[in-house]
Design brief:
By secondary structure, the protein is mainly β. Helices cover about 5% and strands about 60% of the residues. The longest helix has 20 residues. The chain starts with a helix and ends in an 8-residue tail after the last strand.
């Protein structure tokens, strides 16, 4: 009972902390578009394996990306897992360079078995992040200098509850139902320095979202021989229109007169796309796991825009409403030298992976960038326990496809801790 109370208090504390630090953890100019940067929702073992998750089935760690994996947990195990990341980002465009360091909350979840054929998980995840500050100056033919600035922050979060059910000996299905919420805040300002008779213009746009989200999954495992098996997994998230409130506040002022402001509440259509994913993992002797994933998000078939005739509002909220489908390919592997060896190093889980993805937004009607990443890490057993400390490093390269688009180099270190406790059994005292 003491362990249970400690776990619940840790859960509540980390939820509050995670919600508080989930925003402002990026400085990418690309987050100016759409919902911003879509978060990597993989957990500790998956992060170090290139993000593979659809066919990943591990009873010692949580995998909410495919809720069918919940049935892998055994009847006496309770899992509690949380993770954070630290990153260093270098942004360049021509001869201009910028460096930014950020910290982020990655995930928080617990998992347990409800019945021999049913497992459950509850957790908190970020969905997207916005954080940018961009400015420029222009001089017109009349010599008038105009300074512009664009800022944004916020993001979306989801708290999920999921169930996995074993419908056949080798087949499991599952579903996650999430409460989906967050604020997307964007600002645009135009100044005329040195011109006392000219107006400055500032507009702040806030989209507040509160709705639900569903994710479905399935996994099928086939034994190939006494030592090896193959698991195939698939996931699907249906397209969904999000309930939201959108407000636009404008402030205009001159250096020699009073300022004026007004606020509008506008109709906005925000949607999440149909998402499809398929993947597999091959396991040999419970020591070697290799796998690959492919996912498709149909952003080209979603709407994201403000219902208004004011072109300034449309440009402020988003410069383009033309999105493209987002695809991602991931590969990864995990190796354990010796399951019964006496050496501590023989029990370490060595992980490696890579991925390639395309963005879902366009800039001026053109595809903006490509993203490549390589990952590596370890699963370190915690002495005298069944818990695991997962440490991974990721190098991410975001390559702009046009000369006026920025390049980003990101190095990220992620740390996750999985508490693996023995529950639901009686201790015998002689």
């Amino acid at each position: 009972m003491v362990g249970f109370k400690h776990t619940i208090w840790a859960l509540l504390l980390m939820m509050v902390t995670g919600t508080a630090i989930a925003q402002n953890n990026t400085n990418s100019p690309y987050t100016r578009y759409g919902y911003g940067d879509l978060s990597d929702q993989s957990f500790g073992n998956s992060k170090a394996m290139g993000g593979i998750a659809f066919g990943l089935r591990d009873g010692a760690q949580i995998n909410p990306t495919n809720p069918a994996s919940y049935t892998a947990i055994d009847s006496l195990t309770f899992l509690f897992e949380g993770g954070v990341s630290l990153q260093n980002m270098n942004i360049s465009n021509g001869g201009v360079k910028m460096n930014a360091k950020n910290a982020s909350f990655d995930y928080l979840a617990m998992q347990f078995r409800l019945a021999p054929w049913m497992g459950m998980s509850v957790g908190l995840l970020p969905y997207s992040n916005i954080g940018y500050s961009v400015s420029d100056s222009q001089t017109g033919n009349d010599g008038l200098v105009t300074s512009r600035s664009f800022t944004g922050d916020g993001g979306l979060h989801q708290m999920y509850a999921g169930i996995g059910v074993k419908v056949l000996k080798n087949l499991s299905i599952g579903v996650n139902a999430s409460y989906f919420w967050g604020d997307l805040t964007r600002g645009r300002a135009v100044y005329y320095p040195g011109e006392s008779s000219s107006y400055s213009y500032q507009r702040t746009m806030v989209a507040s979202i509160s709705d639900y989200k569903l994710d479905l999954g399935a996994q099928y495992t086939q034994a190939l021989n006494k030592k090896s098996s193959l698991t195939v997994g698939a996931v699907y998230s249906p397209k969904h229109k999000l309930n939201n409130d959108y407000s636009s506040t404008v402030l205009m002022a001159a250096q020699t007169s009073n300022q004026a402001s007004y606020q509008d509440n506008l109709d906005t259509t925000l949607e999440l796309p149909n998402t499809f994913g398929i993947g597999f993992t091959y396991n040999y002797d419970k020591r070697l796991t290799v796998g690959a994933d492919y996912s498709l998000q149909q952003w080209s078939k979603t709407k994201f825009g403000v219902v208004t005739n004011d072109e300034n509002v449309r440009q402020d909220f988003n410069e383009t409403f033309d999105y493209c489908d987002r695809t991602k390919i991931s590969v990864g592997a995990e190796y354990i030298p010796n399951l019964i060896g006496r050496s501590y190093f023989a029990h370490i889980k060595y992980r490696l992976g890579a991925y390639y993805t395309t963005p879902y937004y366009k800039i001026d009607g053109k595809k903006a960038s490509r993203e490549y990443g390589v990952t590596a890490g370890f699963g370190l057993p915690v002495p005298r326990s069944r818990s695991i400390l997962s440490i991974s490093g990721q190098f991410v390269r975001v390559k702009g496809l046009e000369t006026n688009m920025v390049n980003e180099n990101i190095f990220r270190v992620s740390i996750g801790l999985t508490f693996n406790e023995r529950w639901f059994f009686k201790r015998r005292v002689e």
